[in-house]
């Protein structure tokens, strides 16, 4: 059995030879004694044309009755067709139907809306758009591992069930074995977790960062790549309840090192995906986002911009009349502001650094001004924030004070504080939202269309 992608990469060699391909019927048409099937197997963007003739296969009539969506195995000669649009076709000697389909198969040859296709997440990977999106997703994931591996990082696995809230944003999904409707309660009315499986309150992780910091204090350079969960109510095109994050953490490093790493990683992954998925990217460039290839090329070949939060706010304040949410020093930047900065002002990816300490997480290193922290967000056109990172607070007393300010219970973080007690160093890291990266690479506007089975508020159908 040969995959269709191999037929394209080895066409000259395979010309005139007999090959066997397996796949799903995209289209089928026939006239009297001759028929054509467009077959896809998902191994690449392109399909292959199967030509079948009454006097060459034994089950011609049966094959003409195949419905779109059927799974078939075809053996035949690979015939070079240098004059035609496709460089070759397969002249079938044998066509076996492994799995028939029915006339009500939802993916008939016509354009379906993305909204409709979301309702059939189990079938949509067989369409051009989703086939391409999930191949790009796979290539991007591989590129990330390749990048960090080539740069000497250790890949670490951090827990999904956790007893601490990394971001302190209170957006965690609870995990408990207690009866949700009637949990045991202590005298003061609070839930008694002593009978819970973990004997304490636990949640699904919002970030693997704190554990990644532990690993960085042993390996120097580490990264995580795993699912994270946020019960965010924001019903936006870029928020999912379950999404994947890549979180590198580097010891003996500051914010500048962090930004250098982020920029190198972004460029590497973009270049890798453009090199390995040219047909998929060309498809997105033609049908989803006309400026995609030009934009990605520019990103690879120019330096990212960099401004401080304070500078960014000065720019935005001058344009407050354009925004739904008005900006002032101290406010968090909304998507509209992020997009304005990266699309209208800089026209490329931009790092925004040194945010007010009140609007960022407790672990970020306090700057000498006492007002801002060594945070960095990377904003990109079309999306807004794609990366959030920081230099971490390595000074014990400052960290303890920050935890007090955020009303965090030190008992839950004793191990985190230990890192400052035993050989703490300056260190930094960031989190890249993987879905936002895939959106950026494909031009797809909605996060629901880059996750195979998206979970957002109100949807966990599949
Ligand atoms: O900015 P965030 O919240 O940063 C952290 O979680 C840090 N602990 C990362 C670190 O320093 N190790 O999230 C990081 C990125 C965001 O920039 C965004 O791309 C993505 O994760 N993200 C989401 N993606 C999809 N759906 C959501 N609900 C997301 N929330 C964050
Ligand atoms: Mg963030």
From TrEMBL:
Keywords: Aminoacyl-tRNA synthetase, ATP-binding, Cytoplasm, Ligase, Nucleotide-binding, Protein biosynthesis
EC numbers for this chain: 6.1.1.22
Residues in Aminoacyl-transfer RNA synthetases class-II family profile domain copies: 134-452
Subcellular location, principal: cytoplasm
Gene3D superfamilies in the record: Bira Bifunctional Protein, Domain 2, Nucleic acid-binding proteins
Enzyme class: ligase
Keyword Transport: no
GO MF term (any one): asparagine-tRNA ligase activity
Localization (cell): Cytoplasm
InterPro entries to which the protein is assigned, alphabetical: Aa-tRNA-synt_II, aa-tRNA-synth_II, aa-tRNA-synth_II/BPL/LPL, Asn-tRNA-ligase, Asp/Asn-tRNA-synth_IIb, NA-bd_OB-fold, NA-bd_OB_tRNA
Enzymatic reactions: tRNA(Asn) + L-asparagine + ATP = L-asparaginyl-tRNA(Asn) + AMP + diphosphate + H(+)
Organism domain of life: Bacteria
NCBIfam families: asnS, PRK03932.1
Family: Belongs to the class-II aminoacyl-tRNA synthetase family.
HAMAP family (UniProt xref): Asn_tRNA_synth
Assembly notes: Homodimer.
Protein name: Asparagine--tRNA ligase
Organism: Caproiciproducens galactitolivorans
């Amino acid at each position: 059995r040969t995959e269709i992608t191999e037929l394209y990469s080895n066409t000259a060699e395979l010309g005139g030879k007999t090959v066997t391909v397996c796949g799903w019927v995209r289209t089928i048409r026939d006239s009297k004694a001759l028929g054509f099937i467009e077959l896809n197997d998902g191994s690449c963007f392109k399909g292959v044309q199967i030509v079948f003739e009454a006097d060459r296969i034994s089950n011609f009539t049966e094959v003409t009755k195949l419905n779109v969506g059927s799974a078939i195995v075809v053996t035949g000669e690979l015939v070079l067709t240098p004059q035609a649009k496709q460089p070759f076709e397969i002249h079938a000697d044998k066509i076996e139907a492994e799995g028939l389909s029915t006339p009500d198969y939802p993916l008939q040859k016509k354009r379906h809306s993305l909204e409709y296709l979301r309702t059939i997440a189990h079938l949509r990977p067989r369409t051009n758009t989703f086939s391409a999106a999930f191949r790009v997703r796979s290539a991007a994931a591989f590129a990330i591992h390749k990048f960090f591996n080539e740069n000497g990082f250790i890949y670490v696995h951090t827990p999904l069930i956790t007893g601490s809230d990394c971001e302190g944003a209170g957006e965690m999904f609870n995990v408990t074995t207690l009866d949700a409707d009637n949990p045991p309660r202590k005298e003061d009315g609070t839930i008694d977790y002593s009978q819970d499986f973990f004997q304490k309150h636990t949640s699904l992780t919002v970030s693997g960062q704190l554990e990644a910091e532990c690993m960085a204090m042993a390996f120097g350079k580490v990264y995580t790549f795993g699912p994270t969960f946020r019960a965010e109510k924001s019903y936006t095109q870029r928020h999912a309840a379950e999404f994947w994050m890549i979180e590198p953490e580097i010891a003996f490093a500051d914010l500048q090192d962090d930004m250098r790493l982020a920029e190198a990683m972004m460029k590497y992954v973009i270049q890798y995906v453009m090199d390995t998925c040219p047909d998929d990217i060309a498809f997105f460039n033609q049908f989803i986002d006309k400026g995609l290839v030009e934009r990605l090329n520019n990103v690879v070949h120019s330096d990212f911009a960099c401004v401080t939060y304070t500078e960014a706010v000065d720019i935005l304040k001058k344009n407050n009349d354009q925004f739904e949410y008005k900006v002032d020093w101290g406010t968090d930047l909304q998507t509209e502001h992020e997009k304005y900065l990266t699309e209208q002002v800089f026209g490329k990816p931009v790092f925004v650094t040194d945010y007010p300490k009140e609007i960022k997480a407790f672990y970020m290193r306090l700057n000498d001004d006492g007002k801002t922290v060594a945070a960095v967000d990377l904003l990109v056109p079309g999306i807004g924030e794609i990366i959030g990172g920081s230099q971490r607070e390595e000074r014990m007393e400052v960290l303890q004070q920050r935890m007090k300010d955020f009303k965090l219970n030190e008992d839950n973080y004793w191990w985190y504080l230990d890192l400052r007690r035993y050989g703490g160093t300056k260190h930094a890291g960031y989190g890249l939202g993987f879905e936002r990266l895939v959106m950026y690479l494909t031009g797809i506007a909605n996060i629901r269309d880059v996750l195979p089975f998206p979970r957002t508020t109100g949807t966990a159908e599949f």
